[in-house]
C-alpha cells in the first residue's frame, strides 16, 4: 500500500532502482483530485513549453518550462522562486507532482529539475507516469477531456481524430504528406531511369572506368575508435573560425556569474581554456552537461563573469582532433552524416586546454552515456548522426 492505494497492478513492471522519484498513475491523480477529504493532495507542475501548456492543461497546475534551465538560467531561476513561493503560500501541505511530455527524450530537462530539487533537500516529490500524453489518453478513453483547462481538440496535437473538423483536417494532412512523398519518389525514379537509359545507349567498344562519383551500397565508415584522433599536420587553412550555426546569436548572449553556473547540479565537468579564433586567444571555459557542451567566454572587464557564446548538442560531435606537436590544442567538429554517408560539418571550435586529455575523456564518456545501445547482431546498421564514439581513440 503506497499513498493509501494499491498500485501493484498499475506499476508491476517498474524498477524502483531506476526511478529518480516515485511515479503516480493517472487514476491515482484523478482519485486524489476528486477526494476532498484525502490526506494527500498534489500540487501539479506542468514542465512542458508554455505554448503547449496554453493549449490544454490540468486545472490549477503551475507552468514551469524546464528547458529554460539550459536555455535561459536566469528566467528559470525566477520561475522556480515563483513556484516555491506560491506553493508555500497557497498549498504548503501538498506534494509536488511534475507533469512532463510523456517522452523520455523530451522529459530529460524535467528529470534534471527534479534531481536539482532533490539535491536541495526538497521533500514529497513525484512524477506523473506517462506525462501529459498518458493523462490525455486516459481522459479521452473515459470521455472526460473536458476536465482539462483551455483544451481545444482543433489545435491539440494529441487529439488526432477527436472532433469532426479536426479529424477531417488530419485526413487532409495525411493525404498531403502522402502526395508529397509520391511526387518526391516519382522524381527520384525518373532521374534513375534517365541515367539507366543513358548508360545503356553508349557504344559497345567503350569501356567505362570506375569514378569517384560512382558510389554503390553503403559508404565506408570510420571504425569505432576514430572520433578522437591525433593530427600531425593540422593545417590551419582547413580550420575556419568558430561557426555560428550552433552558436547563440549576439542578442541572446547572457552574462552570468561563472562560479554560480559551474556549481549547478547538471554541470558534470568544466575546463578552463583559451578559445582560438584566427590569431586571437580568448579566455574561456568549457562546461559539460548530460546532453550539451557549453562554451563560456570570460568577461575581461568583469572578472568572475562570462557570456554564453555557444551551446552544442553532444549528439552532434563528429570529430575531436588533437595536434601531435601541441597536444593541449583540441579541435571539435560538430555535424552529422547524410543518408548516403556524406559528412556535413556545421560548426568547428578550437581550444587550448591545459587538461586536454581529461576534457577529451569527459566528452567521450558523456557521448557514451547518451548513445543508444546497438541491437544484437546489428552493430553497424544504425544510421549515423555524426555523434557517438566512432571517432574516439583514447
TrEMBL record:
Gene3D superfamilies documented for this protein: Rhodanese-like domain (3.40.250.10)
Region (Disordered): 374-394
Domain Rhodanese: 45-141
Pfam (any one): TBC1D23_C
One GO CC term, this protein: trans-Golgi network
Coiled-coil parts of chain: none
Basic and acidic residues: compositionally biased ranges: 374-383
GO process annotations (BP): retrograde transport, endosome to Golgi; vesicle tethering to Golgi
InterPro entries noted in UniProt: Rhodanese-like_dom, Rhodanese-like_dom_sf, TBC1D23, TBC1D23_C
Superkingdom of the organism of origin: Eukaryota
Protein's recorded name: Rhodanese domain-containing protein
Species the sequence originates in: Pristionchus entomophagus
Amino acid at each position: 500500500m503506497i499513498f493509501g492505494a494499491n498500485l501493484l497492478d498499475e506499476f508491476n513492471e517498474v524498477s524502483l532502482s531506476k526511478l529518480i522519484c516515485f511515479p503516480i498513475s493517472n487514476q491515482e491523480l484523478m482519485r486524489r483530485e476528486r477526494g476532498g477529504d484525502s490526506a494527500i493532495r498534489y500540487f501539479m507542475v506542468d514542465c512542458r513549453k508554455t505554448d503547449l501548456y496554453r493549449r490544454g492543461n490540468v486545472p490549477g497546475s503551475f507552468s514551469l518550462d524546464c528547458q529554460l534551465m539550459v536555455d535561459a538560467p536566469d528566467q528559470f531561476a525566477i520561475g522556480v522562486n515563483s513556484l516555491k513561493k506560491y506553493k508555500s503560500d497557497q498549498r504548503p501541505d501538498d506534494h509536488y507532482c511534475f507533469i512532463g511530455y510523456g517522452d523520455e527524450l523530451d522529459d530529460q530537462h524535467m528529470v534534471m529539475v527534479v534531481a536539482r530539487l532533490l539535491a536541495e533537500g526538497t521533500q514529497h516529490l513525484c512524477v506523473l507516469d506517462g506525462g501529459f500524453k498518458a493523462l490525455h489518453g486516459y481522459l479521452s478513453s473515459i470521455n472526460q477531456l473536458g476536465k482539462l483547462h483551455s483544451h481545444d481538440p482543433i489545435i491539440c496535437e494529441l487529439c488526432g481524430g477527436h472532433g469532426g473538423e479536426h479529424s477531417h483536417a488530419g485526413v487532409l494532412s495525411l493525404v498531403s504528406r502522402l502526395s508529397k512523398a509520391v511526387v518526391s519518389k516519382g522524381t527520384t525514379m525518373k532521374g534513375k531511369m534517365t541515367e539507366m537509359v543513358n548508360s545503356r545507349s553508349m557504344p559497345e567498344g567503350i569501356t567505362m572506368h570506375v569514378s569517384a562519383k560512382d558510389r554503390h551500397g553503403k559508404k565506408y565508415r570510420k571504425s569505432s575508435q576514430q572520433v578522437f584522433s591525433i593530427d600531425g599536420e593540422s593545417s590551419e587553412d582547413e580550420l575556419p573560425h568558430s561557426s555560428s550555426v550552433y552558436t547563440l546569436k549576439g542578442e541572446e548572449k547572457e552574462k552570468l556569474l561563472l562560479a554560480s553556473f559551474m556549481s549547478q547540479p547538471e554541470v558534470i565537468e568544466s575546463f578552463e581554456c583559451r578559445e582560438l579564433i584566427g590569431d586571437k586567444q580568448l579566455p574561456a571555459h568549457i562546461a559539460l552537461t548530460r546532453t550539451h557542451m557549453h562554451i563560456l567566454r570570460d568577461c575581461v572587464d568583469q572578472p568572475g563573469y562570462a557570456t554564453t557564446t555557444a551551446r552544442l548538442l553532444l549528439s552532434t560531435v563528429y570529430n575531436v582532433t588533437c595536434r601531435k606537436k601541441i597536444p593541449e590544442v583540441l579541435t571539435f567538429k560538430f555535424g552529422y552524416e547524410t543518408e548516403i554517408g556524406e559528412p556535413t560539418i556545421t560548426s568547428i571550435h578550437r581550444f587550448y586546454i591545459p587538461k586536454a586529455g581529461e576534457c577529451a575523456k569527459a566528452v567521450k564518456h558523456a557521448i557514451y552515456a547518451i548513445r543508444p545501445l546497438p541491437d544484437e547482431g546489428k552493430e553497424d546498421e544504425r544510421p549515423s548522426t555524426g555523434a557517438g564514439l566512432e571517432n574516439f581513440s583514447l
